[in-house]
Amino acid sequence: MNRDQIRRRVEELAPWYQNIDLGDGVWTKDLEGSRDIFSGHDIPGPLWRVIARDLPADLSGHRVLDIGCNAGYMSFQTKQMGADYVLGIDSNLGAGTSFIHQAEFCRSVLGLDVDFREQSFFDYTPEQPFTLVLFCGVLYHLEDFATALDKVMTFAVPDTGLIVLETAVEPITQTRPGLRDYNGDTSTFFVPSVGVLTELVRERGLRIEIVRTLGTRAVVFMRPPL
User: Are 71 and 20 in contact (CB under 8 A)?
Assistant: First the structure.
């Protein structure tokens, strides 16, 4: 595909949530316009740069699972860091467009060997565990957040696997059933405080290595039990 064809396809697959560099000056989001989800916000580049600081620079030998991959930004980043195998999974829950179709298009343009699966992670059973599991921007969308953490824990190599959890946080824990919006998002159910979040993961036997708070977001690096 040439540059004009890529730009046309980007517009056909809009709206975009993630802003992915497709090369030759083409990005998925129109940061100056209003067509996209949270228009004007460069998502998730700034967040990824925070996460990447605490990851190995070379992911050779790693199997990576990107839960809630959206258009594949973090999947592509880990592949470019040398990961042996990368799988992005997303259910497109509540979306008017297919995140997986977006991800597959970006993959074809970038020429990266990344697998994508349109499926709820609750229904996914891997053939072998992953050394790195990214669980970013998902937890606060889930009513059954405790079961979700239990499920995510099973994806990682026991004891040594690394799980990176990123979620919305507030000074006081909020539960928001129904259609009450959170920063304009009506699909938010659970926004914990950092203290509640860390206690929730420790209850499951997860060992916390790093906690970083980024205003109304938090990133937790943790290892599963043996």
Answer: yes
